[in-house]
């Protein structure tokens, strides 16, 4: 993970669209989720806090303190597969892959 303090300042108050892909222990797709909202805070110690909008309005989501996955979004409409929402002109995009632990290595 990489935390860039300048990037963290840049994204504060901006609109971000986040895609999360959940994979099983063999790397096969389990599910996908998309979230979007306003970046409320970004610190190396506490991560990046998003005040969610759309179907999750009123909730917050805290992502890890990794700014390397955040890229500038191209202008346009983004249709979310998980909710059928359309997000128009977000400022930033971020994608994550979450791997389930290998069942043989669990204690």
Task: Report what the structure shows.
By secondary structure, the protein is mainly beta. It has one domain (5-99). It is 7% helix and 48% strand. It is built from one helix and eight strands. A six-stranded mixed sheet has the order 4-3-2-1-8-5. It has a two-stranded antiparallel sheet with strand order 6-7. The chain is globular, with a radius of gyration of 15 Å. The mean pLDDT is 93.
Classify the oligomer. single chain
Number of helices: 1
Order of helices and strands: HEEEEEEEE
Averaging pLDDT over every residue, what do you get? Answer: 93
Categorize the overall geometry: globular
Main β sheet profile: 6 strands, mixed
Low-confidence stretches are none
Strand fraction equals: over 45%
Overall number of strands: 8
Please state the structural category: mainly beta
Helical residue percent band: under 10%
Order of neighbouring strands in the sheet with most strands: 4-3-2-1-8-5
Number of domains: 1
Calculate the terminal CA-CA distance, rounded to whole Å: 25 Å
Task: Tell me the Rg in angstroms.
Answer: 15 Å
